[in-house]
Amino acid sequence: IGRSTATLMAEHGARIAILDLDEGQARDAAASLGGQHIGLACNVTDLDACRKAAAAVSEAFGRVDVLCNNAGVTQPVKTLEIGPADWDRVLDVNLRGVLYLSQAFIPHMRDNGGGSIICMSSVSAQRGGGIFGGPHYSAAKAGVLGLAKAMAREFGPDGIRVNCLTPGLIPTDITGDKLT
User: Fold this and answer.
1) CB 65 within 8 A of CB 112
2) In b/e form, how buried is each residue of 56-84, taking b as 16+ CB within 10 angstroms?
3) Which residues have a Cβ under 8 Å from the Cβ of 117 and sit 6 or more positions away?
4) Does residue 26 fall inside a structural domain?
5) Which of 3, 57, 85, 115 is most exposed, with minimal Cβ within 10 Å?
6) What phi and psi, each to the nearest 5 degrees, are found at residue 87?
7) Beta-bridge mates of residue 41
8) Per-residue model confidence as pLDDT tens digits over 146-166
9) What is the DSSP code (8-state) at residue 42?
10) In a domain, 108, yes or no
């Protein structure tokens, strides 16, 4: 979803910054879009890392108009199988990551008179589960829906629009060959 979104936005003239845990993969993905795009390392569960990435993007591009919160992980386990580390990892990346990246980029958007934040939730948040995600994934993605609505109300007066998408089952790196 992230790569397709970046590709489409780049085709429409956007300068793209791809953030990933793996800086090499981020740079390769950015390079595949063309020369004006950048790839940076960023752990979305680390607020300082998010702030550093936001500052680097703002410095490189002069302004930030759009943030797409797309980082996510899942784990296909049942409720009674979810351990504390499983819960923390899925909630940290899927929900805390949206909060931290938004907190890092919103000041830059405010400074430039507004912007747009896109948050990726999941149909799993609406239906209470899915094929590949456990209940903790559904909970995290439901949290993303609530957080996006709250941010939309809070930052709308600042000219910052916040929307949330809830894609269903589509071929991604997570679903892999499981759809054949």
Assistant:
1) yes
2) bbbeebeebeebbbbbbebeebeeeebee
3) 66, 67, 68, 69, 102, 105, 106, 109, 148, 151, 155, 160, 161, 162, 163
4) no
5) 85
6) -55, -50
7) 20
8) 999 999 999 999 999 999 998
9) -
10) yes
**What is the C-alpha separation between 180 and 176, in angstroms, rounded?**
9
Active site residues: 137
Return phi, psi of residue 172, to 5°: -140, 180
Average of per-residue pLDDT across 69-90? 94
In whole angstroms, give the CA distance from residue 20 to residue 176. 19
- CATH classification of the domain holding 151: 3.40.50.720
Q: Tell if the pTM clears 0.85, that is, is over it.
A: yes
Distance CA 173, CA 163 (A): 23
SS3 category, 45: coil
Domain membership of residue 35 (yes or no) is no
d(CA 100, CA 69): 10
Instruction: Write the DSSP symbol of residue 131.
Output: S
Report how far residue 86's alpha carbon sits from residue 172's, in angstroms, rounded to the nearest whole number.
Answer: 21
Amino acid at 134: G
For 158, which DSSP code? G
Domain that holds residue 92: 64-179
In terms of residues, how long is the chain?
180
